[in-house]
From TrEMBL:
A UniProt-annotated Pfam family: NAD_binding_11
GO term, biological process aspect, one: organic acid catabolic process
Residues of the signal peptide: 1-16
Protein name in UniProt: 6-phosphogluconate dehydrogenase NAD-binding protein
Length: 299
């Protein structure tokens, strides 16, 4: 399969490499050409523009936020250079970015009008999972398009969950999942600050948690980062955590679903960013309670 891949950040570079390893023909584009050059050494073809990368059976975008995806999809100042206009008829755009429900709906409508297809397929997993092709893919879209995209999902992930025919459904599920992860980071950080200030060893405490009622990847992964204070380099930067919490709050407002914990998390991320944590991993959110209790700031 000929696959265009746009966005070679921490996640995208590993995903594109796994597509190459699975035998696909990958045409890669990134605003920073050195990242394309590194993938080209593994066998990818370097695209000079979004339009070049769009000449494929499937185009995957793995970008930071709505603005980046919207610019790539709609071409910014020149719509003819965007994915929607440049992709061949019946080609499939797979968005693996965490984007708003509204943008997912607009992309689905625009691709339908252009007579190509759109599948929302965001992923759960950090860069190490992406490198190991162990991501969890959450997909939604027209059943035929999702089926056609399955070889892509198989190459990057360990399991795919299809959650509906409307692409916006997968976007909402991913937003809700990131909201839950942020909730765990905050609550786990508070619990660790409490026991840590009383002199309990945090590593032993985490082992107790993950050996009993809290034996789940989210507690093991983020608990380990908190114990080790491993916030750099960021696997998922703190500003992106704030972005995703704001997406959850926006979706909640649209659906008339109050998210009081979401409002708290927004303010906690703002505190982290306002006090110098903008370059840290979003797990540094969980270090704020200890800082507020007298420990050093995570930055």
């Amino acid at each position: 399969m000929r696959i265009g891949f746009i966005g070679l950040g921490n996640m995208g570079a590993a995903m594109a490499a796994n597509l190459l390893a699975a035998g696909h023909d990958v045409v890669a584009y990134n605003r920073s050409p050195q990242k394309v050059a590194a993938l080209a050494e593994q066998g990818a073809t370097a695209a000079e523009s979004v339009r070049d990368a769009a000449q494929a059976d499937v185009v995957v975008t793995m970008l930071a936020d709505d603005n980046a995806v919207e610019t790539v999809a709609f071409g910014g100042a020149d719509p003819a250079e965007g994915l929607v206009a440049a992709m061949p008829a019946d080609a499939i755009h797979i968005s693996s970015s965490t984007i708003s429900v509204d943008l997912a709906k607009r992309l689905a409508a625009a691709h339908a009008e252009a007579r190509n297809q759109f599948v929302s397929a965001p992923v759960f997993g950090r860069p190490d999972a992406a490198a190991a092709a162990k991501l969890f893919v959450v997909a939604s879209g027209a059943p035929a398009a999702v089926e056609a995209a399955t070889p892509v999902f198989d190459a990057i992930g360990q399991r795919t969950f299809v959650v509906g025919d409307e692409p916006s459904a997968a976007s909402l599920v991913k937003i809700s999942g990131n909201f839950l992860i942020a909730s765990v980071i905050e609550s786990l950080g508070e619990a660790m600050a409490l026991v840590g200030k009383a002199g309990v060893d945090k590593q032993q405490y985490l082992e107790l948690l993950t050996s009993t009622l809290f034996d789940a990847p989210v507690y093991r992964t983020y608990g380990g980062l908190l114990v080790d204070e491993q916030f750099t380099p960021p696997g998922f930067a703190a500003p992106l955590g704030l972005k995703d919490v704001k997406l959850a709050l926006s979706a909640g407002e649209e659906l008339r679903v109050p998210l009081p914990v979401g409002s708290l998390l927004r303010d906690r991320f703002l505190t982290l960013l306002a006090t110098g944590g903008g370059e840290l991993d979003w797990s540094a959110l969980g270090a704020l309670p200890a800082w507020e209790a007298g420990a050093p700031h995570p930055a």
